[in-house]
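I have been asked to look over a protein record a colleague put together. This is what I was given:
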Amino acid sequence: MGLYLSEQKIGWSKTAIDQNERKNHTLVNETFMVMKMMGTRMETRSTLSIEFTPKLEPVAYTFSLKTPMFAADAGGTVKDGILTTWTRTPQGKREQEIKLDDELDIFGLADIRRAAEGYKVGQIFEGKIFEPNLFAVVPYRVEILDTKAIKMGASEETVFRVKMKMSEIESMSYSLANGDVIRVEGPMGIVMKKETEESAKDMTASENITDLILAFSVDAGRIVENAGSVRRAVMSVTGLNGPLFPGGAQTTASASSTDTGAATIVTVDLDGPKEKVEDLSEYLKPSTHIQSDDPRVIDKAKQIAGAEKNPAKIVAKIFSWVNGNVVKEPAFTLPSTVDVLATMRGDCNEHSALMCGLLRAAGVPARIAAGLAYMKGKFYYHAWNECYFDGKWIPVDATFGENPAGALRLRISVGEL
């Protein structure tokens, strides 16, 4: 399949299924992408291999990602109802175990099973999925919306329109009755189209690709001076594919439709009411990418925070250290706390991964938020942190150097990048 951004070719993806010597099936997906970020051109390659039985039972997987500045691989095996996984980056290897249950889809095999059984309009499937590309379990929802007859060569085929939501990310796929996908429409104008292998791998038109930062920007309609100091903002949003994550300083409300579609009124108020959170343990514990229990992270957090016990002052100290010491440059990595602590360079994703791990290690509940942030008349893709203290989720932006972060931002998701 050819991979496009705003109709510009940026890569390709190839999937093949074969039978191995154990009479199991092996699905191999190879993906190549070329991108430009802040004027820097980067190529990335990933390979995902999944082994499963003829009954579509998961056996094992491997995954690798390579970019000019980063390499990582991962793998896992299934035995006695347990998925044992590992991830390896330049800073070491980390393992975890995931208990399987009926609600958990491993590697997307449930979707292959559904396609084999036959799609039916109106079907809805919900549950959890282990996503090898993210090394994490995330919620998903699949809805078979409708069908359409289209011409494919000399024959007419029935195409199912399938809406999928994985975590907070929505996409639309168009699949034949046998499960073959002919088109996928993802967020931010990214599209995959079924093509011949020769056509999909033809990258001759990729020399002048659009910079990702510019491609994902949205005109704000006005210039705001001293945007980082804005403490309350009310914004009307249309045309966004996916929800705007409510909670914390951000609230949402529906508004009347406009010429560009239904509008959502988003209010970000740093001085809004307090928000009681019953259980903050999720935002204090380590994870695959936020290794707040790593001795290197714990030692650095202690070094920065010292004997300070006040959460607001701990946040201020860690914020100042990350903002002042991480070299700001474009990056294409799978950022983790320990990797960024070692390299001390990267963009907003790396800053927020490091901040989150250090804050949790210092005892301050923290999470990563992603969405759009205002700068010089436009909203750009951005990631930042939110810290919970004094009864509120407080946005903090170590990349922009804002503590608290200005209100001119739209949070689309929270979690890991």
Observations:
- The chain is about 15% helix and 50% strand.
